[in-house]
UniProtKB/TrEMBL annotation:
Superkingdom of source: Eukaryota
One Pfam family of this chain: DNA_ligase_A_N
Name this protein carries in UniProt: DNA ligase
GO cellular component, one term: mitochondrion
Family: Belongs to the ATP-dependent DNA ligase family.
Length: 94
């Protein structure tokens, strides 16, 4: 139920803020770039996701790899970094 609620909130936000991107978001959730008949594969590996997460959060790749090794889940790692960054921004506004 937690996943359904999170996806529902995500789709609702995308539908409100950028309705033209809703289809793309659904395909990404299915690990696709578009409809299956187009034959495009996502091809995003863990390292690419870690690099993108590093660029987003300002955390170095080696630190992210070490945290991932200890935590074991990239989604939880990203969520924790997001919470940490939001806490820092509320204490020290940019």
């Amino acid at each position: 139920l937690k996943i359904i609620e999170a996806l529902s909130n995500f789709f609702r936000s995308v539908g409100f803020l950028s309705p033209d991107d809703l289809s793309t978001c659904i395909h990404l959730c299915l690990n696709q770039l578009g409809p299956a008949y187009e034959g495009n594969e996502l091809g995003v590996g863990e390292t690419i996701l870690l690099k993108a997460l590093g660029m987003t959060t300002g955390v170095g790749l080696e630190h992210l790899k070490a945290k991932l090794k200890s935590q074991g889940d990239l989604g939880s790692l990203a969520e924790g970094l997001s919470r940490y960054k939001n806490t820092l921004e509320s204490v020290h506004p940019g």
